[in-house]
Amino acid sequence: MADEEASKAAKALSKLGANKGGRARASVLTPSERAAIAKKAARARWAKDEPEGEPEVETGPTPEPDSMPFSLFRGTVTIGGVELECHVLNDHRRVLTQREVVKVLTNGRDSGDLNRYLRRNPLIDDDFTEGRRIQFRIPGSAGAVSTPIGYEATLLIEICDFYLAARDEGLLRPSQMNLAKMAETVVRACAKVGIIALVDEATGYQDIRAKRALQLKLQAFIAEDMQEWAKMFPDEFWYELARLEGVRYSARNRPLRWGKYVMAFVYDAIDGDVGKELRKVNPNPRHRKNHHQWLKEFGREKVNNQIYQVIAIMKLCDDMPDFRKKFERVFRKAGEQLEFDLFAE
């Protein structure tokens, strides 16, 4: 045991000395000498055998479906003749999937493992994407849902910068020059969009653009006309609510305050803007004129998921104060803050 501890200590000291020595050595080298050393290191990395078999798939802890961010808007952007699918998530992050990042870097020739390309760039650290992967849901038709791995769109620009820097330092192989060429195309295209954004900010047009974004979000959730009535809230929801309040449940005589609970626990918890819009288009909800009749299919899916999440929390609680406490804690993790005092009698 003593020998093992001594070995660990020796390795730590050796690493510390190597780090210090490396920095000291680099400080006295000329730029051309540093470039030559980098090229040698790159060649060493290239010489390593590539892993055989299927491309590497990024893994990690999978979030619970209800807590997983989801695609609110889905579209296509064209860069250098390559069409890329892109998403805006419900937490406002702009995301490209891993396959789309590879697709644009390779000019549409590949859509496989991103790390396969990152490993071959000598300027990119092995842990470059660590902690930056985003697993999100893409709602589909007929209840089908996919959960791809994505990255914030700005990561693409960082990768392109690394390829351009590696090209400038002569660190890329001939077979990688097409990657650098595509990286240059991406950076130029995004620079054009960037100057437009700067002008929008300077002129105040971004405020109008933000209002337009809100309109688009509401259009994704809320229909233009009230839809046919269909049962949305299962009886279990009302039974659990009655149990927590210690009252007898009657489908024909629900307390008015329960309507406020529904707004807080379901609609506002999904999206505060959606809750406000529902109050505006349906100011007097009642039987067969319910809020959920104003929802499109996308909105109904979100409401249905929220209802069953609320029921799950209810089942863990003994009374309403306990439920409010647990519910607030769950949604505080998602950035939600609810004022329950508004619903006190």
Indicate the low-confidence ranges by residue numbers. 5-28, 47-60, 341-345
Mean pLDDT: 76
What portion of the residues fall into strands of 2 or more residues? 5-15%
Q: What is the helix tally?
A: 12
Shape: elongated
- Helix coverage percent of residues? 40-55%
| N-end to C-end Cα span | 67 Å
Radius of gyration: 27 Å
How many strands, what sense, and barrel or not for the largest sheet? 5 strands, antiparallel
The order of strands across the largest sheet is 1-2-3-7-4
Total tally of structural domains: 2
The total of beta strands comes to: 7
Could you give the order of the helices and strands? Answer: HHEEEHHEEEEHHHHHHHH
Helix-strand category: alpha+beta
